[in-house]
Amino acid sequence: MAKNSRNMRDRAIKQAQILDKKFFEEYSDFIWDRVKHPGYVAIPRILPLAMQAIDNQTKGKPAGHVYFCLWARSPDYSLITIDSPHTFAIEAGFSGERAVDTWKSRIKSLEELSFIKTFPGSFGELSYIVLYDPVTVLAYLWSLEKIQKDLYLRIHSRAMEIGALESIEKFENNKKGK
């Protein structure tokens, strides 16, 4: 994490703790802390905007929620083992006989958009999934004119706000051959 981003996060945490102690302490037993409680992961702060971009590109067969579910399953690392596609399909909201097929079609869409890369293995054709940096992928999709200008302006602003602009700049520099 960039130093500036870490400072912003630390400042936000400190401000929240001050407000919590002063005004919301009676609710402290109900507030989650990903350090103290098991079952939490870190997700990209750009995720809601990435989901919008995904859903815009997969109209009629939205895959944004499937992408979110992959991040929710990531072990704070970008490689996910798919040992039960059925479980992943159900968590993504699909049911019935075609749940796994529907989930797999959304996974294919995510791979076609370059948000993920799939690999076969001992659990079948989709044994492993690598999650790519969504900020870089969004910059790539913008370069292909697959993201509307108003959405990309929000993405770019959010990337600046969270200290992730370097992912966009790195992509742009690689594209220019620098």
Content of β-strand: 5-15%
Helix proportion:
55-70%
Number of helices: 8
Structural class category: mainly alpha
Q: Give average pLDDT, whole number.
A: 90
Major sheet: size, sense and barrel closure?
Answer: 3 strands, antiparallel
What is the alpha-carbon Rg in Å?
A: 18 Å
Number of strands: 3
- Whole-Å distance between the termini? 23 Å
Order of strands, main sheet, comes to 1-3-2
| Multimeric state | single chain
Global geometry: globular
Low-confidence stretches: none
H/E series = HHHEHHEEHHH
Note down, in words, how this protein is organized.
The chain has 178 residues and is mainly alpha-helical. The protein is 56% helix and 10% strand. A three-stranded antiparallel β-sheet has the order 1-3-2, with helices on one face. A hairpin with a 2-residue loop joins strand 2 (116-121) and strand 3 (124-131). The model has no long low-confidence stretch (mean pLDDT 90).
Please name the defining characteristics of this protein.
56% helix, three-stranded antiparallel β-sheet, mainly alpha, 178 residues
Topology (SSEs and partners):
Layout: H1 3-23, H2 47-57, H3 64-73, E1 79-81, H4 85-91, H5 99-112, E2 116-121, E3 124-131, H6 134-143, H7 149-162, H8 165-176
Antiparallel strand pairs: 1-3, 2-3
Helix pairs in contact: 2-3, 4-5, 6-7, 6-8, 7-8
Short description:
The chain is mainly alpha-helical and 178 residues long.
